[in-house]
Amino acid sequence: MELRKDQQYLALRVNDPQMVIFWDVDEVRPIIISMALGVPFDLLNYSMPLGILVFVLSRRLKQRYAKGIINHLLWWHGILPLKETPSMPDPLIRELFR
Least enclosed by CB within 10 Å: which of 15, 17, 76, 84? Predict the structure, then answer.
């Protein structure tokens, strides 16, 4: 397909993550949420450093470990309970028997 001179081709794949400038949306989300909560509660001086800290930590976790490590850790400690199925046992039971 031929593009007009005023059009630009952007390569977009189905599996590409959504980006905000250079960062993935899930990495920038803590900063946006901290701004959204800090402004109406007049706590922007406290929420912005917290949002940036969570941004840096989530970026390091994402680079160092597998994709679902945070969900796995939350499940392992019983914070993220799922419905018990044969393939997904109760996380608080440490010894499983067949």
Answer: 15
Q: How confident is the model at residue 21 (pLDDT cuts 50, 70, 90)?
A: confident
Count up the domains in the chain and report the number: 1
Interatomic CA distance for residues 36 and 89, integer angstroms: 37
Q: Are 44 and 35 in contact (CB under 8 A)?
A: yes
Evaluate whether residue 6 is within a structural domain: no
Residue 55 has phi, psi (to 5 degrees) of: -60, -50
d(CA 12, CA 9): 9
pTM of the model: 0.62
In a domain, 38, yes or no: yes
pLDDT bracket for residue 29 (50, 70, 90): very high
Bridge partners for 19 per DSSP: 24
